[in-house]
Amino acid sequence: MSSARERILQATEELLADKDALAISTRAICDRAKVGMPEIYRQFGDKQGLLTAVADIGFERFLDAKRQNPLTDDPVADLRTAWDSHVAFALRNPYLYRLMFTPTGDAKPQAIKEAQAILLTAVERCRDAGRLRMAPELAGQSILSANVGVCMMALSFPDLFGGSDISPAVRDAVIGQATGDEREDARIGTATVLAQALVGTLTGTAPVSAAALDLLKGAPRPPAGTSEA
Questions:
Q1: pTM metric for this prediction
Q2: pLDDT digits (tens, 9 = 90+) for 125-145
């Protein structure tokens, strides 16, 4: 038979499937876990301690999925695969993901450090293959920051940032900047502008293109094959 602690953790996870952590009351958790209110404080100190423990469980699952990402002979392609699996996890677990990556209070999930370490190993594979043009630590921080940013914007503003083209555009811009593996795309749209602006903010080395600036200003671009006066 499961312990009171296990039942409380399971009840909180189940409630997180449908609503944000801030909207879940301790009473609802206790009713679902079939425990008295004092049990939460006995086991976790307070509600924040409980939420931190649930976030840690979320990270365990997240990192387990990361470890199962296949490795190929192309470390840059593997970075893109890792990015996509990160986004897929966030979209499958929106409220848990928010709890994991936007913690409140002093207690923070420590597993974020392991997430960084796994990504750093992937980036170092690119370096060892001669396909990295910035420090591995900066590359890893930039990629993870951008990955989390894309997920949070998609979850918080799905109508504006939930389009299927945005994540690949930002992914390729950020990873391309780090590895020199940029992908040419003549289409200039919202996702491309977002990607360029995000890369510039994270690294300070990728200015927004003239075409993107024109799009932001509403200025027309001349037809292909003509020159601007």
A1: 0.77
A2: 999 999 999 999 999 999 999
